[in-house]
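Hi R.,

As promised on Friday, here is the backbone we talked about, encoded as structure tokens. Could you run it through your design pipeline when you get a chance and send me back a sequence?
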């Protein structure tokens, strides 16, 4: 691996990280041209949903002449209409009269509780201890072969996405968080569960951690023979590429990546890119090259987000760019049923057309991507198409991944609904009364899909 640095970078490339939070929000939204009432409404939303951005995003990614319509601005800055008008007015009134912190937090928590802070039963996924009494904090055995691990020091990000389904991790309420600092518990669990072949470090963002802390979590896994891959879910390439170029421990971090690959395990760098503009700076492209030079594989994924990337041309451009730089397009997700979903969600029928429009115009190298995919309670449900069967218009679906492995790869059908945005909005088609994932496990699964083959 070459650890040389490219000297021809933007002036901000080597600057120290600087975060901007809610206390800077009024000044920044004024820069975007918002009036006083609009700025107050944005601050009201930010009392409920988290806000954090950094100097790189501010200086290098946002086109301030186009704000507040610039896609990167909308990606990181709260919008006044992201919450119901009554909730925004309530929080704005509290801010206007300078209410106490306790009063503001009480009102904010009441609103958060209505926003489904833990979709897909996240809190119920924590794995049990050996005696089966208490869950091991910060670990989720979500699928048969995959365990998710939430390192305690990785429960923040370089910047927060307005659409993030893990927003509850960042609002400062301990009861809404799940994280662990006990890597020994994970190693023991993996030894006791050889069916687990992949560990995903997630959060927050694991790449917020420095090399020494990251190494403390990753190195012990290299001796687990049954483990085939280590994944790191991160937005750092989009929001702070300096993590892999000019940060003081950038080189040490890349050496750790090399060690993972040298141990015989696959290191999958799960990079979140939500818009092509995030790939534009030369610094990002240099960071991508340096990570790939370690032997790690970069896979890219993002949700489909209304007002930010809800058109085929944006996704086509994004996938083409990723392939050009040696990355592997992986997922187009459907915005999850949490937080401001009503604001960001794209109907499934429209999502499918957006995906198909982009998919049809890229080469086979980009067609590794899957979607639109819903990470719902029973698993990852993909909308494969819209067609007509026996005179009925239906969605054709299948499970890419499922908590019940027997469901993986098996097609099923849902009634076409142009307004549906999530699995819970769909109904079984072709005379079926339940979906395959809703069946009684004692029943023959074929009886539930038999109606599809009259």
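Update: got your reply. Pasting your designed sequence below so it's all in one thread:
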């Amino acid at each position: 691996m070459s650890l040389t640095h490219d000297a021809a970078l933007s002036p901000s490339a080597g600057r120290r990280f600087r975060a901007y939070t809610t206390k800077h929000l009024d000044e920044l939204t004024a820069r975007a041209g918002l009036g006083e009432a609009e700025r107050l409404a944005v601050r009201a939303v930010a009392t409920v949903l988290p806000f954090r951005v950094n100097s790189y995003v501010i200086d290098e990614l946002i086109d301030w002449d186009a704000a507040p319509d610039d896609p990167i601005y909308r990606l990181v800055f709260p919008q006044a209409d992201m919450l119901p008008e009554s909730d925004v007015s309530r929080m704005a009134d509290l801010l206007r009269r300078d209410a106490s912190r306790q009063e503001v937090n009480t009102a904010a928590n009441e609103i958060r509780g209505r926003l489904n802070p833990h979709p897909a039963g996240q809190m119920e996924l924590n794995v049990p201890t050996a005696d089966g009494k208490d869950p091991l904090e910060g670990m989720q055995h979500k699928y048969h072969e995959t365990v998710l691990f939430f390192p305690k020091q990785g429960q923040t990000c370089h910047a927060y996405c307005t659409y993030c389904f893990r927003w509850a991790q960042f609002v400062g309420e301990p009861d809404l968080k799940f994280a662990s600092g006990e890597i020994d518990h994970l190693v023991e669990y993996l030894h006791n569960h050889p069916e687990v072949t992949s560990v995903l470090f997630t959060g927050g963002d694991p790449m917020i951690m420095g090399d020494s802390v990251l190494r403390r979590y990753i190195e012990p896994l290299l001796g687990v023979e049954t483990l085939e891959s280590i994944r790191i879910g991160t937005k750092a390439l989009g929001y702070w590429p300096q993590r892999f170029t000019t940060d003081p421990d950038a080189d040490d971090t890349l050496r750790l990546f090399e060690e993972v690959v040298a141990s015989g395990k696959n290191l999958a760098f799960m990079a979140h890119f939500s818009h092509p503009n995030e790939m534009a700076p030369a610094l990002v492209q240099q960071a991508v090259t340096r990570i790939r030079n370690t032997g790690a594989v970069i896979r890219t994924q993002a949700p489909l987000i209304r007002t930010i990337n809800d058109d085929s041309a944006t996704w086509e451009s994004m996938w083409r760019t990723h392939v050009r730089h040696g990355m592997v397009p992986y997922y187009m997700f459907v915005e999850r049923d949490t937080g401001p979903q009503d604001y960001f969600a794209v109907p499934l029928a429209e999502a499918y057309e957006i995906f198909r429009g982009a998919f049809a115009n890229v080469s086979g190298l980009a067609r590794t991507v899957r979607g639109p995919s819903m990470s719902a309670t029973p698993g990852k449900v993909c909308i494969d198409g819209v067609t007509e069967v026996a005179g009925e218009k239906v969605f054709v679906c299948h499970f890419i991944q499922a908590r019940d492995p027997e469901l993986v790869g098996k097609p099923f059908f849902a009634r076409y609904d142009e307004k549906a945005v999530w699995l819970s909005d769909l109904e079984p088609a072709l005379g079926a009364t339940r979906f395959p994932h809703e069946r009684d496990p004692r029943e023959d699964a074929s009886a539930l899909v038999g109606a599809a083959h009259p």
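One thing I noticed while checking it: The chain is about 30% helix and 20% strand.

Thanks again,
M.
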